[in-house]
Specification:
It is built from four helices and no strands. The chain is mostly helical. It is globular and about 45 Å long.
Length: 122
């Protein structure tokens, strides 16, 4: 699970930095033309970075920071649901569904497995 936490941290921090600073460069490459209000984009990017750092905290001390992983897991499932909804109803590009939705779903499933397995050894 240690590797998964580090990969999730990198995924979130890289995604957040992209949203905050590189969005105008990356969006056309993935055919995502609706950036929405800048305030919401900045909030989403900052939240992604925040949760990336939370996964590092969980990696460093699981017992103390387990709750952060629970919140992050719920947020990752939510990210999948809203991206799937957008894909099915609003024309969200397939690339966004795969990068954002499916990427978050994979981490959510791995986190769920980790949270539900027996606590011995942690």
């Amino acid at each position: 699970m240690q590797t998964t936490l580090i990969l999730a941290a990198i995924y979130n921090i890289a995604g957040g930095v992209t949203i905050l600073f590189l969005f105008r460069i990356i969006a056309p490459l993935i055919r995502f033309n609706d950036s929405g209000p800048e305030l919401f984009r900045m909030f989403a990017g900052g939240t992604a970075v925040l949760f990336g750092t939370a996964y590092i905290a969980v990696w460093r001390d699981y017992r103390r920071n387990r709750t952060l992983l629970v919140y992050g897991t719920v947020l990752k499932y939510w990210a999948f649901v809203i991206s799937l909804f957008g894909f099915l109803t609003s024309g969200l590009p397939l690339q966004m569904l795969l990068l954002f939705g499916i990427g978050n779903l994979i981490f959510a499933a791995l986190f769920t497995y980790y949270l539900l397995r027996p606590q011995s050894g942690r």
